[in-house]
Design goal:
750 residues, alpha+beta, Topoisomerase, domain 3, Gyrase A, domain 2, 5 domains, elongated
């Protein structure tokens, strides 16, 4: 029985001991390894690296020294850990693709965005950057608490003065026991402008504070695909997730195109990304691409070739976002060490981080000025002692020459302090000149003025705030004026409103024939029909579109109210009966389809004109929509209707109204718009536009009767040339009543 009790007691003691040791380990991991200090944004290893380099006199204007020397000093004096871990930390501080504002300037191979490792530390060299010097500015001016190192042979700082807001500017990441931090880099100009607002108004609302704040500014650029409201909500809570995409553009290659990726998401290794893209081609995970090439040099350049030039680039990218790291979720968790000693972990909002940094900067301002005040007091004290000497110079010399204890006698006779007496005894004979006395009086006046200014500053919080704003303005000028740091102020990461492209993973391409009726019924059959024979329509209905297409093509549908909708042909039910178009589109009650056309990948423009004669010219790519709701292209007045939609294939536009006026004008002077109310194409008061076409001046205009399809008028385009906005010339036609039936027959497909 006693043995059992003893065994239980031993187990209990062991468990308690294990709990205590694990808790100590967990706290040590949190406070000494994983989480940054909110005041200077650094972890101990980073702080020790920068301090060791400062002690080695490796300033931004000094010569480089071997990284092995730096690492040796760090692990020998301050950080007794593995040399490779310390070197890895040094390398990361020097990488411009890891840090928005690098703290170390490297010379040699410091790795690359492909994920290649840096050269061995014996081959590389380093020195501090100007940013690091800003972080350590005034470190020896009484601003920083120094503690003993691990073997109590050296002293190291517990925190830097951090004139530069490093935590937000460079961000931080780390994983501890039970908690982690993930803070992305931000733009220094945006941070400092917010800091100024907080100094002026400590009670400012977070929405007002972040009015001009855009979000993370990542060293690798990219796109943030989130709304302003979503970004602000994350920074108010201190945690959340943002969607980051690559930057890309479509480039023309012969009769097709290619996708050129110029920036990749932050933290992604380019080599692994290329491997994944190549795997998508080989495994046919993404069936729409045929080749991937890495043409990068100092900048990222990844070329992706589509299999079919008819597939929109937006669609291919949507597929790649789904299967690769061209789109990632950037985690934000602003968990930092805060409190007076920087030992308490807490998730802070953006505003709270700025407030704590500013509080730290105010304490640095106070401590540095207390240090300067003490120094000024000592200087004034010594100068007053010197001046006593000059007034009684002969007696002083006599005491020094004849007294066995000159210091004591000087103190007794002139009522000066021990420090003053010591200074007098150490004074050089050459200082006894009359000119030196004048200089001493001038210096005394100067230091007394300085003392008063410092005391006024320490006594006035308002003056302290003013000085802090001055400091921030000087810092802003460093990044905004034309100097070495100005290039770092430009925002690299752009913000885009989220526009999700409908995901498609195309199967084998099929030939289709599409039928659309006037009353809004649509039908798709497999194969390319040559005519509409056999297609049964409902009573009093008629076809407005009959065309051949493939499953990988997209249809553009234009409605009477000036809206456009887009839908992939493979979304239609194939070989079924006619279906209502409203099954695929959210049409309004009085809205109906007027025109339908295929989306093409060429860079041609489309012209849209209302029946009242106002129109716009826009790119086809501006018409793609990602939802069933479509988008408005031309803003029409109440009761007005869209008239004609045509592809521009010539240099001029020919337009005719139901009054028989024909006008030809040059469209190249019209500004291209994505949407708008439009400009006047043809000046109409009572008439309506009945048709429009694109034509060259050397071509012939052919007008036919839409009922009989017989040619009515053939004329030279140049004969009807005029200025945009005019009424045009009357056409010569025998039966005027047939004018509303006129339609253009283009010499080419439009």
């Amino acid at each position: 029985m006693n043995d059992d009790t003893e065994e239980i007691s031993i187990k209990s003691d062991f468990i308690d001991l294990l709990k205590d040791k694990y808790l100590s380990y967990a706290l040590s991991t949190i406070t000494d390894r994983a989480l940054p200090d909110v005041r200077d944004g650094l972890k101990p290893v980073h702080r020790r690296l920068l301090y060791a380099m400062s002690e080695l006199k490796l300033g931004s204007e000094e010569s480089f020294k071997k990284c092995a020397r730096v690492v040796g000093d760090v692990i020998g004096k301050y950080h007794p850990h593995g040399e490779q871990a310390v070197y890895d930390s040094l390398v990361k501080l020097a990488q411009d693709f890891s840090h928005r504002y690098p703290l170390i300037q490297g010379q040699g191979n410091f790795g690359n965005i492909d994920g290649d490792n840096a050269a061995a530390m014996r081959y590389t060299e380093s020195r501090l950057t100007k940013i690091s010097e800003l972080i350590m500015d005034k470190i020896n001016d009484g601003t920083t608490k120094f503690i003993r190192n691990y073997d109590e042979t050296e002293y190291e700082p517990t925190v830097f003065p951090s004139h530069f807001p490093n935590l937000l500017a460079n961000g931080s990441s780390g994983i501890a026991v039970g908690m982690a931090t993930s803070i992305p880099p931000h733009n220094i100009i945006e941070i400092l402008e917010m800091a100024k607002l907080l100094i002026d108004n400590e009670e400012i609302e977070s929405t007002a504070l972040m009015k001009n704040f855009k979000g993370p500014d990542l060293p690798t650029g990219g796109l943030i695909v989130s709304t302003k409201e979503e970004i602000h909500e994350i920074y108010q809570k201190g945690r959340g997730s943002l969607k980051i995409r690559c930057k890309w553009q479509e480039v023309k290659v012969n009769n097709s195109y290619a996708i050129k990726i110029t920036e990749i998401p932050f933290g992604i290794q380019k080599s692994k990304l290329i491997e994944k893209l190549a795997d998508c081609v080989i495994s046919k995970t993404v069936k729409n691409i045929s080749d991937v090439r890495d043409e990068s040099d100092e900048t990222v350049c990844i070329i992706i070739k589509p299999k079919n030039s008819n597939i929109p680039s937006q669609q291919i990218m949507a597929n790649l976002y789904k299967h690769t790291d061209l789109e990632i979720n950037l985690s934000i968790n602003m968990n930092v060490l805060q409190g007076g000693d920087g030992r308490i972990p807490k998730v802070l909002s953006l505003q709270e981080i700025l407030v704590q940094w500013l509080d730290h900067r105010q304490q640095i301002l106070i401590k540095s000025n207390e240090f300067y005040l003490e120094r000024a007091e000592k200087k004034i004290h010594n100068l007053e002692g010197y001046l006593i000497v000059y007034v009684n110079i002969d007696r002083v010399i006599s005491i020094i020459r004849n007294s066995e204890s000159p210091k004591r006698d000087l103190i007794e006779e002139f009522d000066i302090s021990d420090t003053q007496a010591e200074s007098v005894l150490e004074m050089k004979l050459r200082s006894l000149r009359k000119l030196e006395e004048i200089k001493l009086k001038s210096d005394l006046k100067k230091f007394k003025k300085q003392r008063k200014e410092i005391k006024d500053l320490l006594a006035s919080p308002a003056t302290q705030k003013f000085k802090m704003i001055e400091e921030i303005d000087r810092l802003l000028s460093l990044f905004m004026d034309d100097n070495d740091l100005s290039s770092l102020s430009k925002r690299l990461t752009k913000i885009e409103e989220p526009v999700d492209v409908e995901y498609q993973n195309f199967e084998e391409e099929l030939a289709l024939t599409i039928f659309l009726t006037e009353k809004g019924w649509i039908k798709a059959i497999e194969g390319h029909a040559t005519d509409e024979t056999g297609v049964k329509l409902k009573d009093k209905d008629k076809l407005i579109y009959f065309g051949q297409i493939t499953t990988e093509r997209k249809l553009l549908l234009f409605t009477n109210i000036g809206k456009v909708y887009s839908i992939y042909a493979n979304k239609l039910a194939i070989n079924n009966d006619f279906e209502p178009i409203k099954k695929y589109l959210n049409l309004h009650q009085d809205e109906f389809i007027l025109y339908i056309s295929e989306y093409s990948l060429d860079e041609s423009d489309l012209v849209l004109i209302s029946k009242a004669g106002k129109g716009i010219i826009t790119k086809q790519k501006e018409m793609l929509t990602s939802t069933r709701n479509g988008k408005v292209l031309i803003n029409l007045p109440h009761g007005a209707s869209l008239g004609v939609v045509r592809k521009i294939i010539g240099s001029h536009i020919a337009i005719i109204n139901d009054l028989g006026n024909l006008l030809v004008f040059d469209h190249r002077d019209i500004k291209r718009l994505s949407r708008g109310s439009g400009v006047i194409f043809q000046n109409l008061k009572n008439g309506k536009v009945i048709d429009l076409t694109s034509i060259n001046l050397d071509e012939q205009i052919n007008l036919v009767n839409k009922n009989t399809n017989r040619s009515v008028i053939k004329a030279n385009a140049i004969d009807y040339l005029g200025e945009r906005g005019r009424i045009g010339k009357k056409v010569k036609i025998r039966n005027v009543s047939n004018i509303p039936l006129l339609r253009f027959i283009s010499n080419r497909k439009s």
